Amino acid sequence: MKKQLKTQVTCFLNTFGEMEQRSMFGGTGFFHQDAMFALLTDKRFYLRGGGIVTDALVDKGCKKFVHVKKSSSAVVNYYDVTALFIEDDVELAVLVKASRDHALNDRAYKAGGHHRRLRDLPNLRLTIERMLKKSGVEDISTFYSMAPEEIFRRLQVTHGNDLDLCLLWKLAGAQQGRHWKLIEEDERERLLSAV
According to DSSP H, which parts of the chain are helical? Predict the structure, then answer.
């Protein structure tokens, strides 16, 4: 069943343009022009939400993907479309195109530096934005020009050495465009060794 589902989903997704596959969230991520829009685990097929895609997927009863790690879990913006795929739902192709296009637009928007405020980045909020500005990281371009561990060290100088290490993971996740809980353990160790 697992191998058959993967083969069928891969063939289906390849009809929407050139794809690249990468290991993601314990499964396989499907990328079009470097923008991930689909995820396949051992038994489930997920589509990336966003905008009207999310509304349509929720209306069809699709549930969000929960990535479970050793000591935590994270809910990400991917919705289970396995039943739609198995039942040959006529709207699935439209949803795949919309998901792919939304992922491409989102990637282009973020790559273009169109975030106006630091708090618009993943994992960052007003409190962290204020801390960053007080530490000399005034804007998006400055934020991206520095390594997360360098920013964290600046924050320690300004706000004390007892900062929660989760802040370091949040900074790294913000630069990578992903939730901080999804940062792998080896990446966390590398970041920690640099501070």
Answer: 2-14, 52-59, 82-86, 92-111, 126-134, 140-145, 148-159, 166-176, 185-193
Predicted pLDDT of residue 167:
96
Residue pair 181/74 in contact by the 8 Å Cβ criterion: yes
User: Same structural domain for residues 66 and 8?
Assistant: yes
Tell me the backbone φ, ψ of residue 23, rounded to 5 degrees.
-70, 125
Amino acid at 104: L
CA 117 remoteness from chain centre: 19
Nearest to 76 by CA among 85, 68, 87: 68
- For the chain, give the number of residues: 195
% residues pLDDT > 90 (the chain): 61
User: Which of these, 49, 53, 85, lies nearest to 65 by C-alpha position?
Assistant: 49
Residues 181, 89 share a domain: no
What is the span of the domain harbouring residue 170? 118-193
Mean pLDDT on 117-133: 92
Higher-confidence residue of 116 and 161: namely 161
Task: Please compute the mean of the pLDDT values over residues 27-47 and round it to a whole number.
Answer: 92
